[in-house]
Amino acid sequence: MTIGIEQIVNQLRNILAYEQVSTNETVRELHGRDESHHATSLPDIVVFPHSTADVSAILQIAHAARVAVVPFGVGSSLEGNAIPIEQGISIDFSKMNTILDIRPEDLLVKVQPGVTRSQLNKELKKHGLQFTVDPGADATLGGMAATNASGTTAVRYGVMRDQVRDLEVVLADGTVIHTGSLAAKSSSGYHLNGLFVGSEGTLGCFTELTLKVYGIPEFVTAGRAVFPTVGEAVSAVAALLQAGIMVGRVELVDEASMVQANIYNETSYEEKPTLFLEFHGNETGMQEDIEFATAIFEDFNCSSIAFETDNAARNKLWEARHSLAYAYIHAYPGKKLMSTDVCVPISVLAETILYARKQLDAVGLAGGLVGHVGDGNFHALLMLDPANAEEQAKADRFNEHIVQYALLRGGSCTGEHGVGIGKMKYQATEHGASLLVMKSIKAALDPHNIMNPGKIFTM
Amino acid sequence: MTIGIEQIVNQLRNILAYEQVSTNETVRELHGRDESHHATSLPDIVVFPHSTADVSAILQIAHAARVAVVPFGVGSSLEGNAIPIEQGISIDFSKMNTILDIRPEDLLVKVQPGVTRSQLNKELKKHGLQFTVDPGADATLGGMAATNASGTTAVRYGVMRDQVRDLEVVLADGTVIHTGSLAAKSSSGYHLNGLFVGSEGTLGCFTELTLKVYGIPEFVTAGRAVFPTVGEAVSAVAALLQAGIMVGRVELVDEASMVQANIYNETSYEEKPTLFLEFHGNETGMQEDIEFATAIFEDFNCSSIAFETDNAARNKLWEARHSLAYAYIHAYPGKKLMSTDVCVPISVLAETILYARKQLDAVGLAGGLVGHVGDGNFHALLMLDPANAEEQAKADRFNEHIVQYALLRGGSCTGEHGVGIGKMKYQATEHGASLLVMKSIKAALDPHNIMNPGKIFTM
């Protein structure tokens, strides 16, 4: 940095209101961490823009001063994605949280980046609409676009990238661009929507998002099916997808996790690999899909299967899955949750999960496996004390083993959490010469490397 | 070019077999045009690679010699996308037409770029699978990825970009990269799949494609519904989609086109705006969807509706839609078909189609309107003699009017044909400052501008 923090603060105060620029220690601390186990690093300054013009002016100052800038939503990222490891300016988007436009006929909505998932769905419900991406956390839509978030519904509706029709982006030098249009499809020019989604703040700041929404399904049925082995559960899901049955959600919870869920909820569910399902659709078609699914599950030795349609009973049926993270956190007071995130072709998913289980037992860490099995994406939920170097080293070794296993089988080191800090070391192996292409794009768009520097890859 | 064509031919002959390098006039002519009205321009040399290594070696030579390179599939593009306007080397991928791997459990297939759509579907059928993108022409999959093709099934299964899991790409300097993986989703690094799909040969040559495939639906029903006006037909489709009814295909054919179809097929269908539909799914669910669709259509004054389930009857029902391009070509011997391609938000589709009809009548060209109405994408099919400057000028003026109309309403100048030569003039209006981002990416990846130069934008 060629000029001091104080000068930058003065420059920012020239263009923003007093309360929009903070160097308060507590405010900086809130912007120095996320929900991951990665080390805290405080920004020098936190700014709270109200508009695209504010963001553009902030970036012009940062660009001229060569100071690092990190966009910040609610800090729910899981790989240190929003931690300002080179300090500088954290741009907090919480004041840009307006739902700008709902277009039911176009099944589109335009929002500011600080709008959260639950805030949007509450508003959409009035129109009989829903936003489908559900990563668990009540993240901001800007943050979800930045990491290409997904979650339990991706098997049916796709990931965050599939929902983005247009982004307004402020580039590193303050230039404002739009990456798409309102058209449902386009073959006009390079697909910048896809490039910016998942760029984790390294290419620019999102200031508006135009997103696809869906009608709330007429009927929803929840299901739970128990299998003797993880292999049989995963094979049953693969068969379901091959048969073209549209499942709304399909989640695997392993034996160890069912044990934790029983303790936490004081329940007595069978402690065997269990699939949690949802079917969305019209009543009779869904009934036929459920009958077909039941027949497939029986072919894979499913020992018990239950379905529920009313809302309370559906929530009860999914209880073990819903409460899983809490169950682990509750069982290991003082420890932090760490989540791995590989995604593999579904043909090798069962063997990858079994390998992960074996490795987890071998390193001797407490944890379980939970998977978005329709997509081949699963998480090992590990409980560890980040201050305990030995535990952290074990967790890192375990993560390394399953990532390498996944990459060798054509998979990805991260299905939905993003690269952040934690997955940087796998980028060269996963992408090979492509990594140079990514770096050349980054260099072209952010020549001074001010946008979330030190994330995804080092320049 | 710093060295002569003869020297380049010699260099190419050093690395390829004799028959893989051609300067024959007839061969060059076959590679100097596509199915559009754009002017022919012959390449100096046509090469026929057999492998990725061949393509890499060809590009190394071209890169060193600063000679233009244009990838070529079967020449079915509609905007001059594969016409070598700066001459140089046309790379014909017809010898790289092997289906490399079919993975039913992963619903994936790996193909070389010269494999055609019908070739792939013939092979997939043996496994109960289908590749869904259907642009009409029997294009190569490499070409379809290059223009981000789509067609009648996009409303249900998405466009070409949605199907691409991984591309092997040879960059301008001969470097070979992979843009994705076999994982169904990934948040690892920049989304190069999305960037390369639709890049029209300006960023590299595709040498392998890993694509998503689907189970052949259990039941298919075809439908045809007649409406008093285009507005009512389009509103009915919007209501269908808002209700969450999954339609497999939904095509609008306007009055003028129904007239042509009746003449060509010697039929007597009502000469009114007509929707052609397909429903895919399980038997009972589909039946419920069809009943719901019928009720919606009646709300929009549908005057007649018919459904068919067996294959021959389905084809008969769709006859007018299927034969449309032939009907026009047959009616205007000696003229060439020109197709416009805007895509707009569905809320303004009806008014855009009505505007197009009015403009078409105003310029006095023969033609009709046909639309992938579920996506907001429609084509005006114009018959013209490209040698007749006045007719060409009229067609250009008409196209200009509807593109500007669409862009003002948040649409795109091309829904599926790509930019090629014909839509270059609209790129600045459509993309604004984004166009500079696209150019900076192009400059970073192809610094000597050898890859399909003069397409999409000029550097």
From TrEMBL, chains A, B:
Its EC number is 1.1.2.4. Its cofactor is FAD. Residues 39-216 form the FAD-binding PCMH-type domain. Pfam families: FAD-oxidase_C, FAD_binding_4. Gene3D superfamilies: 3.30.465.10, 3.30.70.2740, Vanillyl-alcohol Oxidase, Chain A, domain 4. It comes from the Bacteria. Keywords: FAD, Flavoprotein, Oxidoreductase, Transit peptide. Belongs to the FAD-binding oxidoreductase/transferase type 4 family. This is D-lactate dehydrogenase (cytochrome). It comes from Lysinibacillus contaminans.
